[in-house]
Amino acid sequence: MDKRLSVRKKAMRKMAVLLAFALVLAALAACGNGSAGEAAGGTGGEPGPEAEHRTESAARAETAEEENGASGAGERTVYPLTVVDATGTEVTLEAAPERIVSTSPSETEILFALGLGDRIVAVSDYDNYPPEALDKPKIGGTWDPNEEAIIAMEPDLVVGGISMSPDIAGRLRALGLVLYKAHPATLEEALETILTFGVLTDAQEEARRLVAGMRDDIRRVTEAAARIPEEEKAKVYFEIAPGWTVGKGEYLDELIRLAGGINVAGDAEGWTMINEEHIIAQDPDVILHVAGLVDHESGKTLEELIRSRPGWEKVKAVRENRLVGLDEDVVSRTGPRITEALLLIAEAIYPGMVRP
Asked: Which of 157, 261, 296, 353 has the fewest CB atoms within 10 Å, measured from its CB?
């Protein structure tokens, strides 16, 4: 078990931007035991407290949007405003935030997409999109941001993903900082998060416009996928890190299904370690993987690692050279580019199915 934990920590440092994967690691670090899930084909771990509050959080966010006139164009947020974040914590803003610290790439992308770049005073070390984020002061990692650096920025709002250490989150709140943590696990929750950020920052119109464009991307893909006969749907395997894939209950599984694919690990729960025999037996038509990722132990790229596994040369996707690398940042962030990830996945599974 100690060896597995070590491997997971290495993967976390390499793929810190895989926020949902980081959640698994954060839960392990917090609990000191347990696993991310059984091998593909088995059952995943128990949901954490964050998952228990997702429905409540979404409902409270919807209530806040309704109270602030989110159904009409040009409406302004009414402060003081109280919402519930992904941890079930009530977050109150007395006025529109003017100094925002973001500790997570997904949330940073949302803020910039809402036109709030001038209000962002610091971001995490991993924030690289849009390019303007590179010019912002850095406050450390997504799991363990530098508390002193955050406090020095005198923010009136700190936002981050669920990957932030609960201990650090607690200390920041104890110091009186307003902290909102997001954890969208589905495509719809990602859209809801953007709308909630619009309410939090008094950028409701911008948020609604952004979400409308994203829904158009979803419509294009789902309409095209609906034309694929059930018996012709492609079987898809997605490796997100060496030895790790994704099952049901997470957004990447949802994106595969929306694109008309069948996730061969879809009988597992959440982020899960793979069962190689199960994957070989499923004989996927397409293998998706994170492009450019290098395995720490073997020194091989993820694609090389997949191709070199004993028995995998028999898999249809390998035989027919249907291995497709996808941009890590795009597929790992549940922000404004999540529908771009959907389009990439659809194109990888069915080239030319969704035209620009």
From this structure: 296
